[in-house]
Amino acid sequence: MIAQALLDGLVNGAVIGLGAVGVTLTYSILRFANFAHGELVSWGAYFAFLLNLALGSALLSLGAPIGPFSFGWSLPIALVGAVLLSATLALLVDWLLFGPLRRKGSAVIILVMASFGAALALRNLLEFLFSSAPLYFTNALQIAMRLPGGIRATPDQLLAIGIGLGLAVALHLFLTRTPTGRAMRAVAENPQLAGVAGIDVRRIVRTVWVLGAGLAAVAGTFSGLLVQIRPQMGLDLLLPLFAAAILGGIGSVPGAMIAGLIVGLGEAFAVRLVGAEWRAGVAFVVLVAVLLLRPQGLFGARRAA
Amino acid sequence: MSALSVRDLVAAYEPDLPILRGVSFTVHPGELVALLGPNGAGKSTLVKAIAGTAPILSGTVQLSDVPIEALPVHEKLARGLGFVPQTENVFTSLSVGENLQLAADRLPKSERQKQIAQVEARFPDLIKHRHHRAGALSGGQRQMLAIGRALIGAPSVLMLDEPSAGLSPRVVGEVFAALQTLNRAGVTIVLVEQNVRAALAIASRALILVEGRIAHEGVPSALLGDDTVADLYLGRKGHVSA
């Protein structure tokens, strides 16, 4: 029982973690809470769905399942396309909305409100285009494997955990070992000094959108693969994403991933122990508890307001 | 050729409240020019406007006779303008090594290590702190790191905004000695300072900014010799040290 909740939590947590990493990056570098991040997750899932459908119909062999997984090669290819399209969407929203506000020197609250507006528009556009009926990558049933300890898991679930952790490690190495990563950390700490130190801050802002939206697309695709695709999926993920980003410490990529897993585990155990209707409350409790007890999060540096 | 030439510069954070009201001056290669003046005269705004971190309303800024006022901040750096802001001038969450590496990243690969090694040779104290967070450095070490960071890429003009702020007199001495050594090695320096005595001791020329305009200009001995100027703007200390 407990082992199974552990696995369910890790699977769910991997998706939350990927989204939370995007939230923490945009929050620390763009300096506002982007409430439209959930919609990047939804749009990523829909982009992947459409590309997967198109590829699978065009070339039937691409739709044939790879090994033990429920999907064919069309999905990984579609995922790459979805990452690129989501990144383009994020850059477009920044160009139309956040960029002009930043140049005007708008207050943070204006940016946050604008992100609410963007979220609403993007979500309703999805509903308009695809209706609110759920979509599925595949209708095939996948048989769960028996793992030691009486745990059951589908290969897709294990892949989600693996990809989630792999991407978090890769991003952490990117931030700590590469010139662009160093520049991103510098902009997060002090954008004005970053410019004086020779960093093209606008390029870093674009990089952050591309990375955040790309990770959101991966999270959305896995969420769609493991559960279903709905226009509301991003909205439902928003609270867990923010809870994880804040629990991990704003700006900390490993923190966001680990906190994503913690929130995912919390949700899974809440479902087992107190009932499924309490699941959504877990992220809220985590968020309030962190803000009250340790506002800088598990791995965040204490910052002056 | 001038190293830095500023013409009729008007800068303001609020369009109807100009802080600089038409500043013009020229810095020649190899000079160490001190920018002095009472509090609120616009000294910091002047170097910030030149560096691109304060908004310019009108006027021109030329670096080695090339206009740079419309360039983004990082482009000015690429053209050879080094700037050390007064506060928060190092990335405290990054290591000392990363602070230098960051500034070197924009250079061609073959240049990076060479430039960092040159800065470390100049400020050997930074070497043993290479892996420490810059936030853990003392005030003087931070200032050395900030100057070192600005020197990467061998700028043609180095501007510093009150490098003595918040430092003990002994450390101020070390920082100014370092600036003098740099200047003797050929680096053109523009130095904003409240510490008039220390600044005039190493400056080749000084500008006195009053209410957003250059009110006086001259070599330190001439300015200190002018009783009105010395009394009004340089303070008794400056006068005594002449």
From TrEMBL, chain A:
<feature type="transmembrane region" description="Helical">
    <location>
        <begin position="157"/>
        <end position="175"/>
    </location>
</feature>
<feature type="transmembrane region" description="Helical">
    <location>
        <begin position="208"/>
        <end position="227"/>
    </location>
</feature>
<dbReference type="InterPro" id="IPR052157">
    <property type="entry name" value="BCAA_transport_permease"/>
</dbReference>
<keyword id="KW-0029">Amino-acid transport</keyword>
<feature type="transmembrane region" description="Helical">
    <location>
        <begin position="105"/>
        <end position="122"/>
    </location>
</feature>
<feature type="transmembrane region" description="Helical">
    <location>
        <begin position="45"/>
        <end position="67"/>
    </location>
</feature>
<keyword id="KW-0813">Transport</keyword>
<feature type="transmembrane region" description="Helical">
    <location>
        <begin position="269"/>
        <end position="293"/>
    </location>
</feature>
<keyword id="KW-0472">Membrane</keyword>
<keyword id="KW-1133">Transmembrane helix</keyword>
<keyword id="KW-0997">Cell inner membrane</keyword>
<protein>
    <submittedName>
        <fullName>Branched-chain amino acid ABC transporter permease</fullName>
    </submittedName>
</protein>
<keyword id="KW-1003">Cell membrane</keyword>
<feature type="transmembrane region" description="Helical">
    <location>
        <begin position="239"/>
        <end position="263"/>
    </location>
</feature>
<comment type="similarity">
    <text>Belongs to the binding-protein-dependent transport system permease family. LivHM subfamily.</text>
</comment>
<feature type="transmembrane region" description="Helical">
    <location>
        <begin position="14"/>
        <end position="33"/>
    </location>
</feature>
<dbReference type="Pfam" id="PF02653">
    <property type="entry name" value="BPD_transp_2"/>
</dbReference>
<feature type="transmembrane region" description="Helical">
    <location>
        <begin position="73"/>
        <end position="98"/>
    </location>
</feature>
<keyword id="KW-0812">Transmembrane</keyword>
<dbReference type="InterPro" id="IPR001851">
    <property type="entry name" value="ABC_transp_permease"/>
</dbReference>
From TrEMBL, chain B:
<feature type="domain" description="ABC transporter">
    <location>
        <begin position="4"/>
        <end position="236"/>
    </location>
</feature>
<dbReference type="InterPro" id="IPR027417">
    <property type="entry name" value="P-loop_NTPase"/>
</dbReference>
<dbReference type="InterPro" id="IPR017871">
    <property type="entry name" value="ABC_transporter-like_CS"/>
</dbReference>
<keyword id="KW-0547">Nucleotide-binding</keyword>
<dbReference type="GO" id="GO:0005524">
    <property type="term" value="F:ATP binding"/>
</dbReference>
<comment type="similarity">
    <text>Belongs to the ABC transporter superfamily.</text>
</comment>
<dbReference type="InterPro" id="IPR003439">
    <property type="entry name" value="ABC_transporter-like_ATP-bd"/>
</dbReference>
<dbReference type="Pfam" id="PF00005">
    <property type="entry name" value="ABC_tran"/>
</dbReference>
<keyword id="KW-0029">Amino-acid transport</keyword>
<dbReference type="InterPro" id="IPR052156">
    <property type="entry name" value="BCAA_Transport_ATP-bd_LivF"/>
</dbReference>
<keyword id="KW-0813">Transport</keyword>
<protein>
    <submittedName>
        <fullName>ABC transporter ATP-binding protein</fullName>
    </submittedName>
</protein>
<dbReference type="InterPro" id="IPR003593">
    <property type="entry name" value="AAA+_ATPase"/>
</dbReference>
<keyword id="KW-0067">ATP-binding</keyword>
